[in-house]
């Protein structure tokens, strides 16, 4: 079995990104390394008289998306605590960050209603949220119409496309094409030739189907079948049986937790014994626990490098911040999930935009978001006027499930 080669050009590009970012995001926003706070979640500021950067968040705290939405709430609260130790320098003021968090119950209509309410009634300066493509797309329409910056936490390339109609919209998750190409190289190195794609229903799955077809074709790998999972809440048994029919060498599961783990379990029940490959949406505690554990043991996932944050080799500002965030997350919640840092990065990016803009005006925040090149907790971002979405491709790594944990694969 061959070992995937590391692309030296990506390392160089990532090094340039980290050097260019420097202290732009992490230090400039007042991140205090090594400091701890035992206070509760920072959803409001201690001093109501201070000027504020107000961020509205519509998250899936209940319903099918709760496996990912709750992680974002935790991450955002931890990060706000950290930033509010000193406040954010915005012009001649130091502003505190205040979160207005709502539970959209995994319902796109509720997400749209909340986005409207947060923008018009609560006068938030920016919106964050939507861990599913459907809730994010509901918020996109509101944010664009009301001209308020929106940072999406969901996967799905269409969230920020077409750019001319998404001028206030940004996305943090990796682009599907980058994930699929990294996955295809892994599949090729493992000498897996006949592949079936089991893709989620909806926009995220649509992006995956397009990206996987292209990536496998480029490496002359055979995509023997595409099977779509039914809408959440329905049985995956039939879809899994169709995916496992004919004995494919490997199956790609392109979806999000909790559906990814359920699909893996049904594939094993249907008789598939070959390798499983997950996109980043699977990387949550729910995928590894309970009846999923045996089914996903040995499975691979492509995911940003934050999943393997080291506590020993921290040599850059970004690595120190990543270690500090991971430490505080585990201290408070007992374990760390690789999907969590997106919420943290959303807050940090907005704080950095406010600092650079010397204002919390919505239009200026939008303009300065698209100039940020920075290394966040999840990975590297390089926004530009012609690119509002996706993590830098060299932030991606490969992981394998070993004893109910995601372990870096080399």
In short:
It comes from Micromonospora viridifaciens. This protein is an alpha/beta fold.
Q: Which series of helices and strands comes N to C?
A: HEHEEHEHEEHEHEHEHEHHEHHHEEEE
What do we call the CATH homologous superfamily of the largest domain?
Response regulator
Q: What is the molecular shape?
A: globular
CATH fold descriptor of the largest domain: Rossmann fold
Using the coordinates above, name the CATH class of the largest domain.
Alpha Beta
Q: Catalogue the unreliable spans.
A: 1-50
- The percent range for strand residues is 15-25%
Mean pLDDT: 87
* Adjacency order of strands in the biggest sheet: 8-7-9-10-11-14-15
Largest sheet at a glance?
7 strands, mixed
Instruction: List how many beta strands DSSP finds.
Output: 15
What's the Cα radius of gyration?
20 Å
- Second rung of CATH, namely the architecture of the largest domain: 3-Layer(aba) Sandwich
- What is the number of independent domains? 2
Q: Level of helix content?
A: 25-40%
Query: Count of DSSP helices?
Result: 13
Structural class given helices, strands, pairing?
alpha/beta
Distance from first to last alpha carbon: 12 Å
């Amino acid at each position: 079995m061959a070992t995937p080669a590391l692309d030296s050009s990506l390392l160089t590009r990532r090094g340039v990104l980290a050097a260019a970012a420097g202290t732009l995001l992490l230090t400039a926003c007042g991140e205090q390394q090594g400091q701890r706070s035992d206070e509760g979640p920072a959803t409001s500021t201690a001093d109501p008289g201070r000027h504020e950067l107000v961020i509205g968040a519509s998250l899936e705290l209940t319903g099918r998306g709760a496996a990912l939405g709750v992680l974002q709430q935790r991450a955002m609260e931890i990060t706000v605590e950290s930033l509010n130790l000193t406040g954010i320098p915005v012009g001649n003021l130091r502003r505190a960050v205040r979160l207005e968090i709502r539970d959209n119950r995994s319902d796109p209509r509720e997400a749209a209603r909340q986005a409207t309410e947060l923008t018009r009634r609560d006068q938030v300066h920016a919106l964050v949220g939507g861990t599913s493509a459907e809730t994010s797309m509901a918020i996109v329409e509101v944010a664009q119409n009301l001209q308020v910056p929106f940072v999406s936490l969901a996967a799905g390339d269409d969230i920020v496309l077409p750019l001319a109609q998404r001028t206030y919209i940004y996305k943090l998750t990796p682009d599907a094409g980058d994930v699929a190409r990294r996955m295809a190289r892994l599949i090729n190195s493992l000498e897996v030739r006949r592949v079936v794609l089991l893709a989620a229903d909806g926009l995220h799955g649509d992006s995956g189907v397009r990206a996987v077809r292209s990536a496998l074709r480029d490496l002359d790998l055979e995509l023997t079948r595409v099977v779509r999972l039914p809408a959440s809440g329905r049985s995956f048994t039939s879809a899994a049986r169709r995916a496992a029919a004919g004995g494919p060498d490997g199956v790609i599961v392109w979806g999000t937790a909790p559906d990814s783990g359920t699909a893996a379990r049904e594939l094993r029940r249907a008789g598939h014994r070959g390798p499983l490959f997950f996109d980043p949406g699977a990387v949550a505690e729910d995928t590894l626990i309970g009846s999923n554990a045996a089914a996903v043991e040995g499975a691979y996932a492509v995911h940003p490098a934050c999943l393997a944050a080291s506590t020993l080799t921290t040599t850059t500002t970004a690595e120190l911040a990543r270690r500090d965030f991971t430490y505080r997350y585990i201290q408070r919640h007992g374990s760390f999930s690789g999907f969590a840092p997106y919420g943290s990065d959303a807050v940090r990016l907005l704080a950095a935009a406010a600092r650079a803009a010397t204002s919390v005006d919505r239009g200026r925040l939008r303009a300065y978001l698209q100039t940020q090149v920075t290394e966040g907790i999840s990975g590297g971002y390089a926004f530009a006027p012609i690119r509002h979405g996706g993590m830098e491709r060299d932030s991606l790594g490969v992981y394998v499930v070993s004893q109910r944990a995601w372990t870096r694969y080399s």
